[in-house]
Amino acid sequence: MKMIKTLALLLTSLLFIQGFSQSPDKKNKKDKKKDKKDTEVSTQTWLWEISGNGLKQPSYLYGTIHILCPIDFKISDSLKSKLEKSQQLVLEVVDADNPMHMVTFMESFMMEGKKLKDFYTEKEYEEIRKFFNDSVGVDVNMYGMMSPMFFIIATLPKMIGCEFPKSYEVELTKLARAQGKEVKEVETLEGQLSLFDTIPEHIQAKELLRVVREWNKEKQTFNGLVQMYRSQDFDKSVAFMHAHMGNMVEYKDILLDNRNQEWIAKIKTMAAEKPTLFAFGAGHLGGDKGLVELLKKEGYTLTPVKNELEN
Predict the structure, then answer these.
(1) What gap in Å lies between CA 79 and CA 67, rounded to an integer?
(2) Is 126 within a domain?
(3) Interval 251-270: pLDDT, tens
C-alpha cells in the first residue's frame, strides 16, 4: 500500500519528464540577435509575472519539477512572496497524493483481458521480472494485470534516489492553505490518468523494456534533468529532454501541447477573478506551444522574475 501511495504522488513526474519534449522556438539569426537580451533573462527562471490584458493585479506562473529529493528541493523567497501576494493557488491536480485516490490510480492502469507477460517473450519477461525484483523491490507477478505504464512509473522512486521525495505541489498546497488561500486545479486526477490510455499498450511495453535495459542511463538522465532544473537553464533543459523521449515522443501533443491550449481559457478566467499563482510542470512553460508564448499571444505581458533555487 505504501508503494501505491508513493506512485500516486509520482504520477505527474512522468508527465513532467515527457513534457520536456517541447522543442525550442525556431528563430532566424536576426531574431535571435534581436531577442538575445530577453532570452538571457527569461531562460534563467521558472517564475513569471502575468500582467496586462485588463488584469487589475498581476498573477504568476511557476514551472515545477513534481518531485525532488530533499537535498535538491527549495522553495525560493521569491516564490513564497508571489504566493503571499496571490489570493489563490492553481495546480494541475489538487491533492494528487491523497490516499483516497489509490483505487482510481490502480483501476486506471489495470488491463482488461491482458497480462504484462503477453507483450514479451519468456526471456524478455524474465529480464523485466528480475530487474524489478532486484532493483525496484516490486514483485511483477503480483501486479501482472497492470499496464506497462504502471511499471514505468514504479521505477521512479529508485530513479530519484531517495526514499522520501518532496513535491512542489504538496509543499505549495500546505503554504497556501496555512495562509487561508483556496487551492484549485485545471485538471482532475482521472483526466490525467486517462492520458495514458491514448498511448497503445504495445508502445508502453516497448518503452518499459527500454527503461529496464537502459536503467543506468535513465538514472543519469534524470539526475541531469534535476541539475538543469536547479540551474534554471530553460533552453538547455528543453533540448536535453527532447533527446530523451524514448518511444513516446510521438505523443507529445497529447501529453503536453493539447493540454496547454485547454488550460489557457481557465488561466484567463482565474487570473481575471483574483491574483493567482499557477504552478504547473516546467515542461508546460516553454516553446511556441508553451504557456508563456500562448499567454503572450492572448495579449498578456510575461515578465521573468528572479528565482533563486541554489541552497
Answers:
(1) 17
(2) yes
(3) 677 778 899 999 999 999 99
